[in-house]
Write a structure and sequence with these properties.
This protein is mainly α and about 100 residues long. It is about 80% helix and about 0% strand. It contains three helices and no strands. It has helices spanning about 1-35, 45-80, 80-90. α1 packs across α2. The two termini are about 25 Å apart. The model has no long low-confidence stretch (mean pLDDT about 85). Its main location: mitochondrion. Belongs to the small Tim family. Pfam families: zf-Tim10_DDP (PF02953). Keywords: Chaperone, Disulfide bond, Membrane, Metal-binding, Mitochondrion, Mitochondrion inner membrane, Protein transport, Translocation, Transport, Zinc.
């Protein structure tokens, strides 16, 4: 019985993380599309649009990575007790 409850909690957590991932992905796609795609007179993606979209995604991913790195560094500086508390709170978040 306890194993089923744990499985349900794990499944729910996994589904929540996947939903958050999809929301982030959709937000990024919409943002880069809006910023980069302007010519709707052709079915082909122009080289300039392709380059812009790639740069947009690269910047977003690098920014996300840098924020995550800085967050981890600040947690390490606060000490092991703060790290433990944040790991517990992150387990319900996107990266937990």
């Amino acid at each position: 019985m306890a194993a089923n409850l744990q499985l349900d909690e794990d499944t729910e957590r996994t589904m929540k993380q996947f939903r958050e991932f999809l929301l982030s992905y959709n937000k990024l796609s919409e943002m880069c599309f809006t910023d980069c795609i302007h010519d709707f007179t052709t079915r082909k993606v122009l080289d300039s649009e392709d380059s812009c979209a790639k740069n947009c995604m690269d910047k977003y991913l690098k920014m996300t990575q840098r924020i995550s790195q800085r967050f981890q560094e600040s947690q390490m500086m606060q000490g092991p007790d703060a790290s433990l508390l944040n790991k517990q709170s992150q387990s319900s978040g996107m990266f937990g």
